[in-house]
Amino acid sequence: MKPNRVSRFLPVEKYQIQTKLTPEEVKERVALITASEYNGIVSGNTFKLSRSIKYQNSFLPEIKGTIASYLGKTEIDISMSLNLYVKIFVIVWLSLTGIPSAIILLALVRMLIHFYFKGFSPFLLIPIGMFIFGYLLMLVAFKSESRISKKRLNVLFEAEPK
User: What global pTM score does this model have?
Assistant: First the structure.
């Protein structure tokens, strides 16, 4: 499945864990952490998790996993992405700040080309700053949380080094 143009700019992490644990042991361990560190469910050979945190982070990754056996080992395909509602908010935010930012940047380039700086207002840079702030906030908040979960899942599933 090919990502659409907008979702290419949203944070997603996909990776695979290989372990000597059986699929049943993996499911048991997922069920164990959903009672303490994570919220989520196990259904068949899939699971869906999000980390239980005591602070607010709307960019907390949703973790989806698929468990499969392959050549005597268990492979767990992990995908981390933003919650659907957060994706919608981010797309609206970046659109509302990105479109004016693009127009302003084009106007600034035109002004530079014509060496015309009269009437330039620093307030024109506000949408650009808001766009950059929103995008960096999303990336930093998502990546810091995904890094924590990735380490925890690697330990939990006794991931084999690659």
Answer: 0.79
